[in-house]
Amino acid sequence: MAQVLRSRIDTRDPSFVANREAMLAALAEVDRLQLDVATGGSNADPAKAAATVARHRKRGKLLPRERIQMLLDKDSPFLELSPLAGYGSDDALGGGIVTGLGWVSGVLCCVIANDPTVKGGSQSPTTVAKGLRAMEVARVNRLPLVSLTESGGADLPKQAEIFVPGGASFKNLTQLSAAGIPTVTLVFGSSTAGGAYIPGMSDYVVMQKDAARVFLGGPPLVKMAIDEDADEESLGGAEMHALMSGLADYLAADELDAIRIGRDIVSHLNWQPAGPGPAQEPVDPAYDIDDLLGIASSDIRVPFEARDVIARVVDRSEFEEFKPLYGTTLVTGWAHIGGFPVGILANNGILFSEEANKGAQFIQLCNRAQTPILFMQNITGFMVGTRYEQGGIIKDGAKLINAVSNSSVPHLTLQMGASYGAGNYGMSGRAYDPRFVFSWPNHRIAVMGPKQLAGVLTIVAREKTEKAGQVFDEEAFAPIRDAFEAQVEAQSTALYATGRMWDDGIIDPRDTRTALTIALLACHSAPIHGVGANDAVAAAAGSTRDASFGVFRM
């Protein structure tokens, strides 16, 4: 039976205060970077960015987030995905594209919007990866896709990195349509070359008069290819496509009119979620959500109580714990978030054989009950050592990874602390295709901790030297060890990870419940079907998947 979790958090405790200050400092840096992205322009050069945005506005154009705001229902939330993609690379921060989930005419949709103030909306490798991820979100969650298009095509100096993977965007659009998932494109400006296929392969196309330009080859290319002198309007203007080619289904007078038409299109889709929906009315947790700022340790090596996080995320702070006395470093149980039932696996320490077996069983039960699963990661990995190897940690860990890999209910992953080694895999890391992955700013991810990795490197180097009959020079090796440790530390941060899209964004811990609720709403736009459900339920859910886990090595 579900019970209200007890919390022993003392907000006056010095460790809580220190954790809170560290979290707020990390959030301040994330907020600063996100503000740079939202401002528009080339975020590497503030002066150039301001000039670019000013030129854009002088043309009477809205910024991408302003277009999204006008598209979405009034006062409804927008869950932006991967806002800091490209961090640490030479691509524009954010990739010059905005993606996320929001409500359009009462329908939860996936939205993609080019930012024409970043290199004219041209596509970098980050743009391509971020756009493909958004299309994947639309596909697996069965969400209508609305594209707000204004792009100059590929960033030509990086064409070799863009051309091959970028072609999947056209394939994905056609497959979304074939799956019955509506695709709507609003064209506000240029959509040239390969970009012309975005409206060409969408179900519905709206073009803005005197602004949209859609052609496979612009006037210079046409001149070079066939020696024809053509102007942009007759070659690919909105009126031409509405009157002659038939590519435009609707001709909009201006940006606001295009957005109005887009909202009207979504309103007549008659789109209904295919999942069972919430099981009860959502009720706020019993504890202050602001406490989440101070619960997670600023030092990733210091453990914290996972139940204190659960108590501030789930409805009424009620949690029905499964096997509370067995495998105690993995907390498992059932709760509701935003009214939706969820099964929760949360780390409270390292994974032993008992935890692996407990987690595998719990995942099977969630699949039988057709219940989505939330993985709350704070894990340094599976236990090592002779005793544990002889006790079967490999085969038991394999059961957990097997269960995670073959589970067919939606997975959500919250990275609220460490995510090291195979623990990341056993707790449904990015490689295991969870529907959504969100991280807190304190999150760290790597094969293992920086000091441990540097220590392993030192041991290996020492053994190699001694096997060669030489004397290992600790002092001479120290700079190599320290440089490696610093490298691993830099590559383990939440910002490094989100820059490579290993998650769907860094979130403020206080926004965790909201983000997870929207994610669950998205998951329930598609049927929910778990491995082990009976054939009638599977057929009703539209499942064609073989309902079986792999062989569990007992």
List the helices and strands and how they pair.
Elements: E1 3-4, H1 14-39, H2 46-58, H3 64-71, E2 78-81, E3 97-104, E4 107-114, H4 125-141, E5 145-151, H5 159-166, H6 168-178, E6 183-191, H7 197-200, E7 204-208, H8 219-226, H9 232-236, H10 238-245, E8 250-252, H11 255-267, H12 292-295, H13 306-310, E9 318-322, E10 330-337, E11 340-347, H14 353-368, E12 373-379, H15 386-390, H16 393-406, E13 411-420, H17 421-426, E14 436-439, E15 444-446, H18 450-467, H19 474-490, H20 494-499, H21 512-523, H22 535-540
Parallel strand pairs: 4-5, 5-6, 6-7, 7-8, 11-12, 12-13, 13-14, 13-15
Antiparallel strand pairs: 1-9, 2-3, 3-4, 9-10, 10-11
What does this entry look like structurally?
The protein is α/β, with parallel strands linked by helices. Helices cover 42% and strands 16% of the residues. It contains 22 helices and 15 strands. α4 (125-141) packs parallel to α6. The longest helix has 26 residues, at 14-39. It is globular, with a radius of gyration of 25 Å. It starts with a strand and ends in a 14-residue tail after the last helix. The mean pLDDT is 92.
